[in-house]
Structures are given as structure tokens and as C-alpha cells.
Amino acid sequence: MAFRSRVGTALYRQGSARVLAYTRRPQAELALKSSPLSSSRANQLHRPATACRQLSSTAASRSPFTTSSAATTAAAEDEAVAAWVEADSTVAVRFPDGAVTRYHGIWLRDHCQCPACFHPVTKQRLLDTAAIPLSIKPAVMTVAEDNKALNIVWDTDSHQSTVDLAWLRHHSYAPKLPPLHSSNSATATVAQRPKRLWDASIASKLPIVQYADVMNSDQGLAAWLADIDVYGLGFVDGVPATPKATEQLGRRVAFIRETHYGGFWDFSANLEHGDTAYTQLALPAHTDTTYFTDPIGLQLFHLLEHRGTGGESLYVDGFHVADQLRATHPWAYDILSTVRMSAHSAGDANTLMEPATTFPLLNHDPLTSQLYQIRFNNDDRSTFSHLPPSRVKDFYAALKEWTRILRDPSNELWTQLKPGRAVMVDNWRVLHGRAEFTGHRRLTGCYHNWDDYRSRVKTVLDKKVMS
Q1: Strand partners, 286
Q2: What is the mean pLDDT of residues 119-143?
Q3: Are 85 and 119 members of one domain?
Q4: Which of helix, strand or coil describes residue 374?
Q5: Residue 51 pLDDT > 80, yes or no?
Q6: The TauD/TfdA-like domain covers which part of the protein (predicted)?
Q7: 3-class secondary structure for 40-81?
Q8: pTM for this structure?
Q9: What is the band of 248 on the pLDDT scale with cuts at 50, 70, 90?
Q10: Are residues 329 and 388 in the same domain?
């Protein structure tokens, strides 16, 4: 027999009755030209807005079951928010659109967020997860009067958790449910700011903000972060042509990542470091620091001086190139997503940088299968000797197709940087390079960690709070 209730009463289902089926098809996620990327880079983890209290023994001893009249009204409540305990002790939740999913009791208890379970200041779990019984299940369960939360009293310790239903929907897993498109949805900001793939035509409308705006307000900084997030690069005009102003601009995003090249760098073609960046040679499109276990996330460039010719800067949207490769040569996309390689930096004395693990050129989230990182610098690629003989030619054939699309003029943004205009580049998406040049060329800039950059996107642009 199934026991259900109206809002505010205990919700249970007993016996072998099956969980309700979907009443409508899940809404499709935002798609970008069937691109291998998605807005999943912006789907960040949250904790539920929960509040817990220890109930009195009297409250905990109340019967969790509703009267039989609840079952007779169930048919009239098919679209109402409801929850019940299944025969296998999982908690089933039905949302306003009729979609139903389940949660394990231990999973729900593990995500309790009262001050005893989750520190309100440090936002860290205080609960000993290993101490939670695997068989834990609700003793009493009700839906809040406003249909926005689920109240649970646990059978083992009478602890009560109030879990936000929007959070539950966002983190559903059995099955995964599409988001309810609402202004209050945990994923609303993702839907509003999809990634935009681009080609050479972006030159006519570069994403540009003003230095004064970025430096003087969080709103101006948010506009710059939005450009970097959406396009993979963002230009800033009106930057004083000094190292100090450029460094201050970089620090508006995050602290500077120090490497064997130093922290904030100010260099010319003097081979101060053993890298072709410190020469006048042309540099093909590439991403930086492929030889780090954790490649840098952002790179800031500001040209302070150039007395000579050439030296135009090159930018290519790697996600757009990957999108084209998958559409035209899926076999090559698969090879570059699975064949692993290594890289090195060995030009400086007493320096030999190599990543802890090998990596593919196209890196995908193992859970979502979404492309999240391009990792390509043909100049820094290390010796390639681990493939079986049957795959060697296949790899080089795939690399040729990637390079052909990468170097297609229709995909290349060429622009001459000048004093006063800086650009921040997403090193996990956009490849950069430059033309050969003559004369004196002085470039400044810095590296930033990926996670520090994404933290600023969440807190300044999305205004997310771990609560």
C-alpha cells in the first residue's frame, strides 16, 4: 500500500509499489552548435540550504504514517510536490513538473547542513560520514508548506534535516533530472551565459571593457570576467602602459602564479629563459605550460613597447576547432581524446619540467564527457614512444587534421596589440601565438591559476555563496 500526504504531513510509501514514472520528457540542455563543450564548466557544486535540529523524544516518537485517506486522494495530487520512502529505503521525490527521482538515505544525511553538521563560517563538513549507518532512512518526512523544502527526521538519532528542493533537483542522480528553468534555479546563471564559439570574424567586434571600470568597481570586473568566460578571452582598453598598472590589472582577477619564469614578467627577445617566446621567431598557435601537471588557467598580455615590424598576436578558439574536427573527422577527435602524451620544459639550466601524468590533447570531464580543456603545444611535446605500432600513423593522421583546422585562416584572429590594450586569455580554451618580428618588443603579463579564476567568476560574476 502506498501512503502519501498533502503538504505538511508525513510522506511514505510501503511495500513493492513502483516509483512514479516521468509524466513529461526532460527538457533539453542548452546546446551550442552540437559542440563538444557545454556550459557544464559553469555548473559548480553547491551544498543544500538545510537547517537541522534535534527533536524531542516526544516529537520523534510520533507515528510517521498518514491515514488511509491520503491514498484515496493520491490520484488528484499527481502534479503536487511529494516524497515517500520506497521498499528499498531510498527516498523518492516528485517535483512540480511530475518528474521523480530517488536519493539514498545516507546521501541525504551526509549533506545535512545544520551548525552541528556543517560549519557556518568555514563551509566545511563537521559530520563524521563514516559513522552514518548505511541503512539509515527517514522516520518522519514532510514537505514544507511553501513546497520549497523537505523536512526529514532520521530513524537512528532523531536528527532533523530540512533540505532545499531546488538543491535536490540540481543534484539529482537516480535519475538525473533536467533543471526547472526558473529565475531562482541553481543553474539559472548557466543558462543565461552560454559559451560562444568564434572564428576570425570576431575581429570586427572584439569583447572589450575599460580599465577604469575594471579597477574601480566589481561591476566592471564582472563584465571582464563575463567576456573571458563566454569567449575565452577579454580585452581591456585604457590600461596605463606601465608594468605596475598591468600587474594591478592582473591582480583584480586573482593572485599571480609564480613559475620558473618568475611571477609578473616583463621581457623582450633576449633569451633570458630558454624558450622560443624569448626570441623573435614566429610562434604557432599553442597553449602554455602543457608540461605542468596543472597547466595555468589564464594568461595576461600587455605590449608596452615595439620599435620594429611584425609581431602581430594570434588567437584561436580551441573549442571551435574541436567542434569542427568532431563534425568532419570524428575518428580524429576520438584519437586526440584518448591517446596520451607528455611534454617538457628544459631550456633553463637546472630546470626539467614534466607533468606527473600523461594527457590527451582534448580533455573531457569523466562524468559528463564534456570537453573542458585543450592541451596542445607541438613544440613542447615530448618523445612519443608508448603507442602500439598499429596506432602510430593514426595518431599523426589525427594530428594533421587538427593542425589543418587550427591553421585555417577563417579560424585565426590576428590583431596587433598596442600599449594601452591588454588581453586576458583562457589558456584551457584559446590557443595563442605571434608573427615573427624585428626590433625591440617589450611584453608584460602574468599567469593565474584556473581555480582562482573560477572562484572570481562564481563570487563576483555569479554572486554564488556556499551556504
Answers
A1: 432
A2: 94
A3: yes
A4: strand
A5: no
A6: 208-447
A7: HHHCCCCCCCCEEEECCHHHHCCCCCCCCHHHHCHHHHCCCC
A8: 0.76
A9: very high
A10: yes
